[in-house]
């Protein structure tokens, strides 16, 4: 595909490379021409000067053209790598959780780095060796045959068919072993990522030695698989040297006989041997080409496997655009995750009007997070219907749908940037005043004053320098600054104390008037103010109403509320 995009660049590079190769064939003829004139004592000073000047001009022209093809070809390889990496990144961003369940992060990183380097090498050095091992070799053979002797040329090239058979076998072995080596490297990458992310857990459970041993075993596996590749790689050069040596032996031996028989001149023999010397690189290039191409093909197969993975959730061909969101209706929604047969939502029916706050409570695993993932269209296979303003969710533009929603998940994702940049992720052009305001809404101002550089404090890898409660409030501020039509808080205040939670809820009630809000929580205090509270049990709505109605119903909600009130009272008494 990239060759279609940049075909002019590659046509120019290959044409220039072939032209440089053709010019490179002229100097040996000049040498042979000069030797014959010396042998027959016909070389004059004028002729010698013409030969020297011509030689120097050829050097200058050859150097200029070589620079042009080298720069054009290898910059094209860099463009290919950048273009493919951009395609991969765009593809990653479009993928759903199903994709990330199948492919591990370390493996995806290996394909985005090592495999792309192999493809880039194939597109640069591979094209060079392809041209040199084909066109340049054909040019040399033609010059040797047409201008010197076909008998001598054919005799000297007898080892070529043997070389082709051997190189083909080497190539197949390289492809298979390189695929295994790259897979092992991806597994090792993933292991390193998990160890870095979980370093605090590893230390807490005193598993450093076990983790080191696990890593050592994986590096040993990567080493052994790469050694298997190197073993085949190491066979290329000696094999080529033997075959080249045979060509030289035949060329010199049979060539000397032809000189004695006056079939060719001494100058022709010298020129032929120079050409034979020049033929060494193309013959080596054949081996290198097979090696590089097989590595590149293996990497390309791995990259294409990712790029050819179709997204489970696709944008409609002719999406419907909605001007202003007025209502969301869930009708008999049933959903189960891919590769499972358990319904995480079952016959879920609910109408949500603009401006309402919906509280969602229930036991762990009741389906609260699943409901939000379905709303975000993260998974296919949703039965029943979810409509926005009466339009089925599947007919809406994905970007518009997700643009309506500000989502704060259970596990807050912090980017390795400053607090300011993490909050601005919700609104790129947010001013300091806006950031200050949303930090106030998230009850984060007191914390920001205690941090060494305030808003410009680096949060570290995955927010390692912040506490759980601080990360939750930065994530809340990031969602608040977006001011979305639909705000989803998925147990987003579990790590903050009751007083802080009450302050945030108070700010939410004031700021989210005429905006739709979903709050899932384990603490009843987080949803008491909601217009509707639903109790989920095994993906079904078991209770629905406001706080007073549910308390009067005397079901699970009331039982949970009283238990939490009792626990709070005990805590206060102990304090």
TrEMBL record:
CDD domains: ABC_6TM_TmrB_like
Alphabetical list of SMART domains matching this protein: AAA
Entry membrane topology: Multi-pass membrane protein
Taxonomic superkingdom: Bacteria
ABC transporter domain span: 328-563
Nucleotide-binding found in the keyword field: yes
Any one GO molecular-function label of the UniProt entry: ATP binding
InterPro entries: AAA+_ATPase (IPR003593), ABC1_TM_dom (IPR011527), ABC1_TM_sf (IPR036640), ABC_transporter-like_ATP-bd (IPR003439), ABC_transporter-like_CS (IPR017871), P-loop_NTPase (IPR027417), Type_1_exporter (IPR039421)
Domain ABC transmembrane type-1 residue range list: 11-295
Keywords: ATP-binding, Membrane, Nucleotide-binding, Transmembrane, Transmembrane helix
Subcellular location: Cell membrane
Transmembrane segments: 12-35, 47-80, 119-142, 148-167, 242-260, 272-292
Protein name: ABC transporter ATP-binding protein
Species this protein is from: Tigheibacillus jepli
């Amino acid at each position: 595909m990239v060759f279609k995009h940049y075909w002019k660049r590659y046509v120019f590079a290959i044409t220039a490379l072939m032209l440089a190769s053709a010019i490179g064939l002229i100097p040996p003829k000049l040498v042979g021409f000069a030797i014959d004139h010396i042998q027959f004592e016909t070389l004059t000073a004028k002729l010698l000067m013409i030969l020297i000047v011509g030689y120097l001009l050829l050097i200058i022209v050859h150097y200029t053209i070589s620079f042009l093809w080298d720069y054009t070809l290898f910059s094209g390889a860099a463009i290919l790598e950048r273009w493919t990496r951009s395609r991969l990144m765009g593809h990653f961003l479009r993928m759903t959780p199903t994709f990330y369940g199948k492919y591990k992060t370390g493996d995806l990183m290996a394909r985005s780095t090592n495999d792309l380097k192999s493809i880039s090498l194939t597109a640069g050095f591979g094209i060079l060796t392809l041209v040199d091992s084909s066109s340049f070799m054909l040019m040399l053979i033609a010059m040797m045959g047409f201008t010197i002797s076909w008998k001598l040329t054919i005799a000297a090239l007898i080892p070529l068919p043997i070389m082709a058979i051997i190189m083909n076998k080497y190539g197949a072995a390289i492809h298979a072993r390189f695929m295994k080596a790259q897979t092992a490297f991806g597994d090792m990458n993933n292991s390193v990522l998990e160890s870095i992310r979980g370093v605090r857990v590893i230390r807490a459970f005193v598993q450093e030695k076990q983790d080191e041993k696990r890593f050592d075993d994986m590096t040993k596996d990567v080493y052994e698989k790469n050694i298997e590749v190197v073993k085949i790689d190491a066979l290329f050069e000696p094999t080529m040297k033997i075959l080249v040596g045979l060509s030289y032996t035949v060329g010199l031996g049979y060539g000397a006989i032809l000189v004695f028989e006056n079939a060719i001149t001494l100058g022709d023999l010298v020129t032929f041997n120079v050409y034979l010397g020049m033929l060494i690189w193309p013959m080596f290039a054949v081996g290198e080409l097979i090696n590089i191409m097989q590595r590149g093909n293996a990497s390309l197969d791995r990259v294409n496997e990712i790029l050819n993975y179709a997204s489970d959730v696709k944008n409609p061909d002719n999406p419907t655009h909605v001007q202003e969101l007025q209502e969301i209706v869930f009708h008999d929604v049933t959903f189960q995750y891919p590769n499972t047969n358990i319904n995480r939502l079952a016959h879920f029916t609910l109408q949500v009007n603009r401006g309402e706050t919906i509280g969602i409570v229930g036991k762990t695993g009741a389906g609260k997070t699943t409901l939000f993932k379905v709303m975000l269209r993260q998974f296919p296979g949703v039965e029943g219907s979810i409509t926005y303003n009466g339009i089925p969710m599947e007919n809406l533009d994905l970007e518009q749908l997700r643009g309506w929603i500000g989502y704060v998940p259970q596990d807050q994702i912090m980017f390795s940037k400053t607090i300011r940049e993490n909050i601005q992720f919700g609104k790129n052009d947010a001013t300091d005043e806006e950031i200050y305001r949303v930090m106030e809404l998230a009850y984060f101002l007191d914390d920001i004053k205690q941090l060494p550089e305030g808003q410009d404090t680096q949060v570290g890898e995955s927010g390692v320098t912040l506490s759980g409660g601080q990360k939750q409030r930065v994530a809340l501020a990031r969602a608040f600054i977006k001011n979305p039509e639909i705000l989803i808080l998925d147990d987003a205040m579990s790590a903050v104390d009751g007083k802080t939670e009450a302050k945030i809820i108070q700010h939410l009630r004031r700021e989210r008037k005429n905006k739709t809000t979903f709050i899932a929580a384990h603490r009843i205090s987080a949803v008491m103010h909601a217009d509707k509270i639903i109790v989920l049990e095994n993906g079904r709505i078991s209770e629905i109403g406001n706080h007073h109605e549910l308390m009067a119903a005397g079901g699970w909600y009331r039982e949970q509320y009283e238990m939490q009130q009792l626990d709070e009272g005990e805590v206060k008494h102990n304090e």
